[in-house]
Write a structure and sequence with these properties.
The protein is α/β, with parallel strands linked by helices. It has a domain at about 5-235: Amidase signature (AS) enzymes. Helices cover about 40% and strands about 10% of the residues. It has an eleven-stranded mixed β-sheet, sandwiched between helices. Strand 7 (about 250), helix 9 and strand 8 (about 280-285) form a beta-alpha-beta unit. Helix 2 (about 20-30) runs antiparallel to helix 3, helix 4 crosses helix 8 and helix 8 runs antiparallel to helix 17 (about 430-450). The two termini are about 15 Å apart. It comes from Piscinibacter terrae. InterPro entries: Amidase (IPR000120), Amidase_dom (IPR023631), AS_sf (IPR036928). This is Amidase. GO terms for molecular function: amidase activity.
Length: about 450
């Protein structure tokens, strides 16, 4: 199979295939067993029409658009004109269809994407696990191929990641509030880039936290992540092309390396050793500021306060239709006072200032994306304690970057035949181009190790 979107676009550009042919292949994959529960709404006719239009324009000599009529899936919290936006909740099933695309969707469409469907997700995006009791939970296709067991896909962009992993889409539009792009990417062996939040508009999407929400994408490769970011942010990524030997990375020893499962620890240590051998300068740093986050968020954090603001009226009338685990987390915001929220704003501002000082001199920081490999779906469905324990572990590392108002990319660092493990490359706000540039070099250096 063509390895990524950029390669597929090249095949179309060279007239060796067509967008229509590739979209048909993706739609066939979307109907396969590996993609079961990945979509809650399919846009087959819309996707085929978009691909046909690109093919006709290309045949007539028009420039091929950036996304070339290729299949892209859309997380079910983004408005798509003519479709009902539910955020995978039955509490919103009776909503009217969206009258226009959200800005992120409009930018994908304008760039020639063939939108193939609304993907399943954690209800209202409120967990990193990916379980959905209303629409079913898509099993992790990457791990299923290894042991045949139904493991979690990661969330909240669960179906989006599965759509990319199964070949039903070349990229998936999603959101990241505490890791919701990077967690499923890490658990499924994909690439997930969380840009600086302000670079892509989040209007036209059902919010979780208006402070932390980020609109971004899951892809197969770093170069695809760059292509999708350039479309979504309407900007050109500036690439230095520096070799790893010209880069300096920090490796935080506070929090990020705690309680790693053996498979994660082994893959991460092997990856960093490979990068050092390739010339990268990697320096352990204490970064004690990371230890302050639990106290800063002790009253519930931004997601609880801001989701309660959006959901309080709907919960009053439809709470019985919510996933009880989601409702429980939203209701934490009910107990937060205005003073708590203002204190949180001030504490975050001060913490970001301290972190920026501590991170100076590094091109980016390196960490495991999450400290565990994908648990079994059945184990987390059966126990609230097991669910919330896994959810806390999954969110621990990636949520640091959202609190920082930073940017981060997760890319796979495991070997073929091993459970997927993600390596996170991250930095402060507006260091997106540096993080992407470093990630390209890291991906290249790890390629031989991973084969």
């Amino acid at each position: 199979m063509t390895p990524d979107l950029i390669a597929a676009r090249g095949e179309i550009a060279a007239h060796r295939t067509t967008a229509s042919r590739l979209v048909d292949t993706c739609l066939e994959a979307a109907s396969g067993e590996a993609c079961r529960h990945a979509f809650i709404g399919r846009f087959d006719a819309m996707a085929r029409a978009a691909a046909t239009a690109v093919d006709a324009q290309h045949a007539a000599g028009a420039p091929l658009p950036p996304l070339a009529g290729l299949a892209v899936s859309v997380k079910a919290l983004f408005d798509v004109q003519g479709q009902v936006t539910t955020a995978a909740s039955i509490a919103l099933a009776d909503r009217h269809a969206a009258t226009c695309d959200s800005p992120a969707v409009a930018r994908l469409r304008a760039a020639g994407a063939a939108l193939v469907g609304h993907t399943n997700m954690t209800e209202f995006a409120f967990s990193g696990v990916g379980i959905n009791p209303h629409h079913g939970t898509p099993a992790n296709p990457a791990t299923h191929a290894l042991d045949g067991l139904a493991r979690i896909p990661g969330g909240s962009t669960s179906g989006g990641a599965v759509s990319v992993a199964t070949g039903a889409a070349w990229a998936a539009l999603g959101s990241d509030t505490g890791g919701s792009i990077r967690i499923p990417a890490a658990l499924q062996g994909l690439v997930g880039f969380k840009n600086t939040a302000r670079l892509v508009p989040t209007e036209g999407a059902i919010p979780l936290s208006t402070t932390l929400d980020t609109a971004c994408a899951i892809t197969r490769t770093v170069r695809d992540a760059i292509a999708l970011h350039e479309v979504l942010a309407q900007r050109v990524v500036q690439r230095s092309g520096h070799a790893l030997g010209a880069m300096r990375f920090g490796l935080p020893t506070t929090l990020m390396l705690d309680s790693l499962e053996p498979q994660v620890a082994a893959a991460f240590e092997r990856a960093t050793a490979t990068l050092r051998h390739a010339g990268a300068h990697i320096e352990d740093i204490a970064l004690p500021e990371l230890g302050d986050l639990a106290a800063i968020n002790a009253t519930g954090g931004f997601s609880a306060a801001e989701s309660w603001t959006w959901h309080r009226s709907l919960l009053a009338t439809h709470e019985a239709q919510y996933d009880h685990r989601v409702a429980q987390r939203i209701r934490r915001g009910e107990r937060m006072s205005a003073a708590d929220y203002i204190d949180l704003l001030h504490a975050r501002r001060d913490w970001i200032e301290q972190m920026q000082i501590a991170m100076r001199g590094f091109d980016a920081l390196l960490s495991p994306t999450v400290p565990l490999v994908a648990p079994l779906i059945a184990d987390l469905q059966a126990s609230d304690d097991a669910f919330f324990d896994a959810n806390g572990k999954l969110l621990r590392n990636p949520s640091v970057v959202n609190m920082l108002d930073g940017c981060a990319l997760s890319l796979p660092c495991h070997r073929a035949g091993e459970m997927p493990v993600g390596l996170m490359v991250w930095g402060p706000a507006l260091s997106d181009d540096t993080v992407l540039d470093a990630s390209l070099a890291i991906e290249s250096a790890l390629a031989a190790m991973r084969s």
